[in-house]
UniProtKB/TrEMBL annotation:
It comes from the Bacteria. This is YhgE/Pip domain-containing protein. It is a multi-pass membrane protein. Residues 4-370 form the DUF3533 domain.
Length: 403
């Protein structure tokens, strides 16, 4: 387990930039164009085309040409991680730099809009990638401007200050495009809240499983120096699974309320849609607990290790919560299609940061909770029923503790 955990955890985070694949970044060209170099031109369109068709952009970045309204919608649903904006007066600002003195020229500027709701690393990677693309566009444009200025005849040559300005003409500013609350952990509260949901479901299911087994006489209770062993009851495996599943479901209602009380009421975590958040927390915790009970029913005492493998060891690196899915190796992106933590994290993120929009991951979260719960119940019942039919009883009828 140590070897496996080390390989899986560290293997997913060592080289985010080297593993970049289709990082979603939008580009908005609002440039109206202006008279430049003896003709009406739209430099914003040229820069937008150059950025989106650059050889180094293929495969690593998924540039999307958007309108301002569409960009706002996609940022509000977490579908793009950053947006590069080209202003309406971009060409006019560039044209002003070609004036011989350029004393009153306003340096053209591009704006990078970040989206902290998708996670701090995802927003940072997308923002820095957009900044690099804008810087490269500035150098290309600067080369064009200086070449045109040096080859022009019959005009006063630009001053050294103007030449320096034309060499790197574009200023790049960064601002938050889709703000989140100050008590949102820079976009990490969704991940930690999801982790608490999974951890709570796992722990409560483990406690319930051990507690039920102890009360049925199939396990020993050791509390300090006290050793308690009840006589085993004659009960089928399928009934035992049904009891554990029922108790786990009831307990999830309490733990979900306590989780919200602690994180929101006591600690002040930014959260809206509280009834929806509670219902989702309850259903998510229940789904995890039912999954753990089904695994325990199938594997017995090894179930805890198998459960840890499914719900934590494989789930954390493939959740896309701390390191975005577009920056992890392909194996983890494959796991993300069905690993529970990714589905739950996207839904919690949608509730906390994206106004509970269905297309931000909430619909997928609800769907996967339903599928996971049904699969857990069917698996637990089927395995327990099979063991019962085969006569694989947990204890022999004459089993008793030796004094």
């Amino acid at each position: 387990m140590t070897l496996l955990v080390s390989l899986l955890y560290m293997g997913g985070i060592l080289n985010p930039r080297g593993n970049l694949h289709d990082l979603p970044i939008g580009i908005v060209n609002a440039d109206r164009g202006a008279a430049f170099d003896g003709a009406h031109r739209n430099l914003g369109s040229q820069i937008s085309h150059a950025i989106t068709t650059a050889p180094d952009a293929h495969g690593t970045v998924s540039w999307q040409k958007l309108t301002p309204q569409h960009a706002s919608e996609l940022m509000g649903s977490g579908k793009v991680y950053a947006v590069l904006q080209i202003p309406a007066d971009f060409t006019a600002s560039v044209a002003s730099l070609t004036h011989p003195t350029a004393k009153s020229a306003q340096r053209p500027a591009l704006t990078v809009l970040t989206n902290p709701g998708v996670g701090s690393m995802a927003s940072s990677l997308a923002g820095s990638t957009a900044q690099q693309a804008a810087a490269q566009a500035s150098r290309r444009l600067g080369h064009t401007l200086t070449t045109a200025a040096s080859s022009s005849t019959g005009h006063t040559p630009p001053t050294p200050a103007a030449q320096l300005l034309m060499a790197d003409p574009i200023a790049v500013t960064t601002t938050v495009g889709h703000p989140i609350g100050s008590h949102s952990g820079a976009g990490l509260t969704a991940f930690y809240y999801t982790l608490l949901l999974v951890l709570t479901g796992f722990i409560s299911a483990t406690v319930v499983s051990n507690g039920v087994d102890a009360h049925l006489g199939y396990a020993v209770t050791d509390i300090g120096p006290w050793h308690i062993r009840r006589p085993p009851l004659s009960i089928t495996r399928i009934r035992t699974f049904a009891v554990k599943a029922t108790v786990s479901t009831v307990l999830a209602a309490l733990t979900s309320a306590l989780l919200m009380l602690t994180t929101i009421a006591v600690l002040g975590m930014d959260a809206t849609h509280l009834p929806l958040l509670y219902m989702f927390s309850f259903c998510a915790t229940t789904a995890v607990a039912l999954g753990v009970q089904a695994i325990n029913a199938a594997f017995g005492s090894l179930g805890q290790l198998v459960g840890m493998l499914i719900f934590f060891v494989l789930a954390l690196p493939s959740s896309g919560a701390t390191v975005p899915l577009q920056a992890i190796p392909g194996f983890y992106r494959f796991l993300a299609h069905f690993e529970p933590m990714r589905q739950l994290n996207d839904a919690v993120r949608a509730i906390l940061y994206f106004d509970a929009r269905a297309d931000a991951g909430l619909t997928r979260g609800w769907t996967m909770i339903g599928v996971g719960s049904a699969l857990a119940l069917l698996t637990g019942l089927a395995v327990s029923s099979y063991y019962d039919r085969k006569g694989l009883r947990r204890l022999l009828p004459d089993h008793s503790e030796t004094p």
